[in-house]
Design brief:
By secondary structure, the chain is mainly alpha-helical. It is built from seven helices and two strands. A two-stranded antiparallel ribbon has the order 1-2. It is globular and about 50 Å long.
C-alpha cells in the first residue's frame, strides 16, 4: 500500500498510523463516533470531502442509527460523515485484511450488493489518507474497483458494534486534570 498522503495541518496524533481497535469484548464504537464528531468540530479545517459509494441497505441502517443517536444525545449536528470517519479509522491498515473484510461482506449477501449513488462526505485526515490511496492499493492487489465493499463492510461493522453497545449518550465535559470534573 502506498504511504498515506500527509497534509501540512496534521497534528502529531493525526499523523500516527491508522490503528485497529480491539473489537471483541471491548466497547469502542461509541467513543469512535464521539471522537469523530469532536474532531470535526474542533479541527474542522483538517477535514476534507471525499466521494463514496455505499451499499443502500447499509446507508439506510446508518440513517436510522443517526436519527436515534441525535435523539439520545441531543446532538443535532451528528452527520453521516462522522460515522463513516469513525468506521474507517478503525479498520485494518493492511490491504489483505481489508480484502478479507470485503469478501466476508459479499459472502454474507451471496454476492448481491447494489452500488447506490455516489455521495460526498467530510472525513478527518486519517480517513482521508486511507481512502485517497485505497483504489490504487486495491488495484495493486488485483482487487480493483471494489472499495464500495470495504467501506460498506466497515460501516456495517461500526453499526453492529453501536447496536451491541446500546444507546449513545451525550459525552460529559473533560476536566482540566486527570480525575477532575467540571461542575
Amino acid at each position: 500500500m502506498k504511504e498515506p498522503v500527509r497534509r501540512e495541518k496534521e497534528s502529531a496524533a493525526e499523523a500516527a498510523p491508522l490503528r485497529r481497535r480491539p473489537r471483541a469484548g471491548k466497547e469502542w464504537a461509541h467513543s469512535a463516533v464521539l471522537e469523530s464528531f469532536a474532531s470535526a468540530k474542533i479541527q474542522a479545517e483538517s477535514w476534507t470531502t471525499f466521494g463514496f459509494r455505499l451499499d443502500p441497505e447499509v446507508l439506510a441502517e446508518l440513517k436510522e442509527r443517526m436519527k436515534a443517536d441525535r435523539r439520545s444525545t441531543g446532538i443535532a449536528q451528528l452527520s453521516q460523515g462522522h460515522y463513516l470517519d469513525a468506521a474507517l479509522r478503525n479498520i485494518p491498515t493492511d490491504v489483505d485484511s481489508q480484502i478479507a473484510m470485503a469478501q466476508a461482506f459479499l459472502d454474507e449477501r451471496m454476492g448481491v450488493v447494489n452500488a447506490g449513488r455516489q455521495s460526498t462526505y467530510r472525513v478527518g485526515p486519517q480517513t482521508y489518507a486511507l481512502v485517497s490511496t485505497l483504489n490504487q492499493a486495491l488495484q495493486e492487489a488485483d482487487y480493483g474497483r471494489r472499495g464500495l465493499y470495504i467501506v460498506s463492510a466497515a460501516l456495517e461493522g461500526l453499526l453492529r458494534a453501536l447496536d451491541a453497545e446500546g444507546e449513545l449518550k451525550r459525552p460529559g465535559r473533560r476536566g482540566r486534570g486527570q480525575g477532575t470534573s467540571v461542575e
